[in-house]
TrEMBL record:
This is Thiosulfate dehydrogenase [quinone] large subunit. It comes from Cecembia calidifontis. InterPro entries: DoxX. One of its GO terms (cellular component) is membrane. It is found in: Membrane.
Length: 162
């Protein structure tokens, strides 16, 4: 038995605000990396503390330019999609995948060095929290309320049966 939950205007507004904030963060990170001519993920990947061989492979000479380009493209794509409210489910999935890669490169697991962070974390860090926020955005898509997808949603015509 499936139930439809009707969100209040305040709840929907809070979800839209969260989508916009997460989208802005992704977009900002993508733009900064795009316009920083010397930026590369190589140092981050080589300093990975978990799954080292995988991240070192990504940082290799044959892969790093592809990884850098894909990282920037994914950040920009997710950011733009979330901000404008178009294809937010797809953007959420891509964003979750990207954040999980960041998380597993430097996880806040007991016994692993934390590296340079803004604080001390234990299992949960900001990458995991933002991934959880994207899961909420995926489960409660708000772009039909506020976003470009609203233009493509067919209006339900209510008909009465005699």
């Amino acid at each position: 038995m499936s139930q439809t939950i009707k969100l209040s205007t305040a709840q929907t507004s809070a979800l839209v605000l969260m989508r916009l904030f997460v989208g802005w963060h992704f977009l900002y990170e993508g733009v900064i990396k795009l316009y920083s001519p010397y930026w590369t993920a190589k140092g981050y990947l080589l300093s990975a503390t978990y799954m080292k061989s995988f991240f070192q492979w990504l940082a290799g000479e044959s892969m790093i330019s592809i990884v850098d380009t894909m990282n920037i493209a994914a950040l920009l794509l997710v950011g733009v999609a979330l901000v404008i409210g178009f294809k937010t489910k797809l953007a959420s999935i891509i964003g979750i995948g990207l954040l999980l890669l960041y998380y597993f490169a430097h996880p806040p697991f007991p016994g692993y060095p934390q590296g340079i962070t803004e604080g001390s974390y234990w299992i949960v860090n900001k990458n995991l929290i933002e991934a959880a926020a994207l899961m909420v955005i995926f489960l409660f898509p708000t772009s039909t309320h506020f976003g470009l997808e609203r233009l493509f949603v067919k209006k339900q015509v209510q008909t009465s049966t005699p």
